[in-house]
Specification:
The chain is an alpha+beta fold and 405 residues long. It has five helices and 21 strands. The strands form five sheets. It has a five-stranded mixed β-sheet. A five-stranded mixed β-sheet has the order 9-6-11-4-21, with no helix packed on it. It has a five-stranded mixed β-sheet with strand order 12-14-19-16-17, with no helix packed on it. Bound molecules: 2-acetamido-2-deoxy-beta-D-glucopyranose (NAG) (2 copies).
Length: 405
Amino acid sequence: MSMCADGRKYPLTVLQLCIANVLVTFVSSQTCSVVDPNVLPSTSEMTVFSSPGYNAGTGTYSADMDCFWLIDSGAADLKLLIFMTYDTSCPGDKIFIYDGNANTDTALANGVCGTPSAPTPYSTTQRYARVEMVSDSNVEKSGFQIDVIAAKDYSGTGCTATQSITATSSYQMLTSPNFPDKYPSNSNCRWALTSPDGYLEIDVIVSDVEDDDPTSCDYDKYLIYDGANKCDNNNIKMICSEYPKVTSYSNNSTESTVTVTLESDGSVNRRGFLLRFRSVSTATTTTPTTTTVTTAFISAISSTTARTTNGQLLEMNMELLVGVVFGSLLLISFTIITVVVVVKKVSMPLEKTITPVQPYRPRPQPPEVQPRPRRSNGSTQRPSLPNGHKTQAAGIGTTRIVSAW
Ligand SMILES: *[C@@H]1O[C@H](CO)[C@@H](O)[C@H](O)[C@H]1NC(C)=O
Ligand SMILES: *[C@@H]1O[C@H](CO)[C@@H](O)[C@H](O)[C@H]1NC(C)=O
């Protein structure tokens, strides 16, 4: 064993690679900077990034690469849930994921290589993850794709007794227990989400439950019921699929309460679910001003329109009425002004209406505005990413760490 510059221990063959990279730093930094080295994931959708040249799994990485990326959830209480898809050539091309921002932190993925059949989940215990990839000079494959979301446990007390949560017009989160880590065995959780305004919007953001026949879900499952009861006839969604099979699901309730449950058996636990919900009003949304004005108009002018039960139609008629009345007022005013002006003009002597022409004087030109020089941020093009995912924005407000070898 020998030591590289960064203090990690390498076997002799890797040590040679390490030295080579130190000597040709600019080459490796160019290779690595294809992907922004800092990733700030979202809390409400998966952020995707991939190794240089990945090209949705059809490309290849470079030989002799040694790169790292830092993922930062953005807050101390937000952890990271990572699903990694990869295809590397063993044993020389390896990926490491550290639970922290240094390669001395615990390795969640300790030099994995090969081609797993499904994305592998990892979760951190704090805000950072450091991802490293090394390759040798032999066969190159496509590399890795990481789907990552910043997350925390929003399960509350729903796994000890039914927890009632009142929804607001802003989104609130709900997760399985321990999220983004695994839900426990023999979980039996229940949440009653209630809308004070009419009904609820439910958006499932992440689903990762032990895979099973989706029509029966005999092992682990979570369910969404339209109503306060937990019956087959109001069950609107049952999920028992591993990520990314049910990546998103959205629906609105017809009842003012939605019941969410999670049931797990004694073995094979996954990451569970993350969903968000908010209260949505059944009434047509109008601004308070419009409502006041139009209501007054309705009672004063048109009793027929006011009796309309359809909110949308009512609003349209009210707007039409306001338009007609204001339009008429404007037209009357305009006519009066025109008549007054015409009468005045006719009564004036002709020569007084002719104004003398001013001699032409060129206006002074304003000084030419120089375009502001654009600050180069040194970022380069990123590989294209699949639809339905948020692509990583260049690390806003974070220190950019460029290759350090
Ligand atoms: C649910 O309701 C909201 C607000 O009315 C709407 O924006 C959204 O599209 C609806 N979602 C579905 C899945 O119908
Ligand atoms: C959406 O919810 C309604 C009840 O609110 C249900 O009847 C319908 O099947 C649901 N749609 C989907 C796609 O789950």
